[in-house]
Write the structure tokens for this entry.
Amino acid sequence: MKKIGILHGKERSFPEAFVARVNSKNIAGITAEPVRIDKAMQGVHSGYSVIIDRISQDVPFYRTWLKNAAVTGTAVINNPFWWSADDKYFNNCLMTQVGVPVPKTAIIPSRDLPDDTSNESFSNLAYPLDWDSIFKYVGFPAYMKPFAGGGWKHVYRLDSVDDFFQKHSETGQLVMLLQEEIVFEEYYRCYCIGGKHVRIMPYEPRNPHHLRYVADFSPTPEKLQEMTDIVLRINQYLGYDFNTVELALRNGVPYAIDFCNPAPDADKASVGEENFEWVVETAANYAIEKAQTAEEGKDNLTWGQYVKRSSNKLSLV
């Protein structure tokens, strides 16, 4: 029997529906359940052929437990090694190399010194930074947000240099991004599952949270295909099995605003009935596919084109 597990926190609607959907298909030799961890010993298999991870970004114990599960053959969705190495600034840097439009973005050192460091720890960092060049490059208005993490936490809209320094003084030890504001005509949030299944959802981030999926615009067939191609390119390059990409259309050009969401919102109350049904059905089918193709004792993770190309270059040296 191959088990599919889902590792989650306080969310309930998606995990419960996912488990029920997989089991309702009555696939011979496959069952699904919430992950149960009662011990953690090195090199010991988790007992699951596939695990969908919805919570390890917030729980370090889960993240390292998942790495052991992956090493011993579990197909973890998403790859915990890549997810641990990834961040939003790095993603933006990669997109500049593969032709995906992204806002002009600079990374800003933390306002306060990290724990166990002193001024001497930063002898390689100029003081002050070349703020004039940074501000000229990004422009104002701009957004400032953490280079890692999500959920619209610690996100600031900035109107001026003075506004930047005032808001930056509130960010403590967070490393921040300063990012060009994209004044958009349309905005879309796009699920991508398995690097091949895409759902483009009109999304209005300026609405109250519970109304953000209520929008009065929709893409033309040509724009739908263009955005689908961008979403696939991003996820196949990064290697995410389960992700959302946010695209803002300015003058008809889709800019990738936020595309590192490997545990994206899938709550029925926020995404709506139709989107919820799509993500439950698609995730269930993909997890079953992964369980059926997983090979015992082998690496069953998804590795993106970026890592594959890098490893190919190394193998030729």
